[in-house]
Design brief:
The chain is mainly α. The chain has one domain: ABC transporter involved in vitamin B12 uptake, BtuC (Orthogonal Bundle), CATH 1.10.3470. It is built from 13 helices and two strands. Strands 1-2 form a two-stranded antiparallel ribbon. Helix 2 runs antiparallel to helix 4. The protein is globular.
């Protein structure tokens, strides 16, 4: 018989991871679903955002309170536990600065990586970004100021000054879901715009887009800047939620997990990316909550999750190749106006016939 299941705790945990991974899925959908850029290094920009937030927060707190110890030492971690949450303004300011800098720096790295990779052809973009992600992870494994293989711990939660830990987590999940809502709105605005039509033109036929006078390298660089910046924001949200980061959190499997979300939900549809993220994060969280209570030690939740996700993807590709929420035509304001006029014209015509 299973022990009592903490439904509220599960929903808070699932909502937080849903928001973080849905932002990542939307960012990947903009790159591969709309533009046709096979980004196999998405986890690199995710890690950049997380490590930027971690380093900015721990070093700032130690500097403000004049603690000479490094943040990856025992003394530094104890000091972070002591002074974290002592100043609400400082904690919230660091959180806001991390979000802004995470978007800008991760986006700039993505933008700079675009041009040298496009010079060798679009077929090499994915493998180049994958290699960059692994090089970054190996660098972090050996870079002592960022904790090397142990990473950084004691990252002050932005709401650590709130005494009630339950209220703290509930506020944070609302913040994360709020960022998801803004990201989805922004992605939909891009998709249903003239720039969105350009992205689909590049995806469908890059040569034709070039012949029509579109600056394809600039278009790809722009969308990789936006997508990488979104991944950086997701990394910032993860770092403050987990209160620690280490290089092994950003392995290539994370990238392919995000790919599974986009494929499952439906490439080219931002809402589909959210649906895919919701399903996979739900499977992950429910297994994390239930498996330890079952007393199963041979099979870990990760193995079960990958089996379930693999079966879901195979079934979706067999029976719904476009995903659970297939791509829909772009609806720009001009196109909606034309449809509205055509509808009014038809209704007027039919009314005239009835009158006669």
């Amino acid at each position: 018989m299973l022990p009592s299941f903490d439904i509220l705790g599960f929903l808070v945990s699932w909502g937080t991871f849903l928001g973080i991974y849905a932002i990542l899925a939307i960012s990947l959908n903009l790159e591969v679903g709309l533009t046709g850029m096979a980004n196999f290094g998405k986890v690199a920009f995710y890690g950049i955002g997380a490590y930027l937030a971690a380093s900015l927060s721990v070093y700032t707190v130690l500097a403000v309170y004049h603690v000479a110890a490094a943040p990856y030492t025992t003394e530094g971690i104890i000091a972070l536990g002591k002074y974290g949450g002592a100043s609400p303004a400082l904690d919230l300011g660091i959180f806001a600065a991390s979000l802004v800098l995470g978007f800008i720096i991760a986006g700039c790295v993505g933008y700079l990586l675009t041009y040298p990779t496009l010079r060798v052809g679009p077929a090499f973009l994915g493998i180049t970004l994958l290699a960059f992600g692994e090089l970054l992870r190996i660098f972090l494994l050996n870079y002592q100021p960022l904790g090397a293989s142990k990473g950084l711990s004691g990252i002050p939660h932005p709401f650590l000054w709130i005494p009630d830990p339950v209220l703290r987590e509930r506020l944070y999940v609302l913040v994360v879901l709020g960022f998801l809502a803004v990201t989805l709105w922004f992605a939909e605005r891009i998709t249903n715009s003239p720039f969105g039509r350009v992205l689909k033109a590049v995806r469908d036929d890059e040569v034709a887009a070039l012949c029509m006078g579109k600056h394809v390298p600039r278009v790809k660089a722009t969308i990789l800047f936006i997508g990488s910046g979104m991944a950086g924001v997701a990394g910032v949200l993860l770092a403050f939620y987990m209160s620690s980061v280490n290089p092994n959190m950003f392995v290539p499997a994370v990238t392919f997990n995000i790919w599974a979300m986009v494929i499952l939900g439906g490439m080219g549809n931002n809402k589909g990316a959210v649906v895919g993220a919701a399903i996979i994060t739900f499977v992950d969280r429910i297994l994390t909550f239930i498996t330890p209570n079952l007393g199963i030690t041979i099979i870990t939740p990760d193995y079960v999750r990958w089996m379930i996700v693999g079966i879901l993807i195979v079934l979706v590709l067999m029976f719904m190749p476009g995903g659970l929420v297939p791509e829909k035509p772009i609806k720009t304001p001009a196109w909606e106006a034309v449809e509205s006029l055509e509808k009014e014209s038809k209704e007027g015509g039919s009314g005239g016939v009835k009158h006669d």
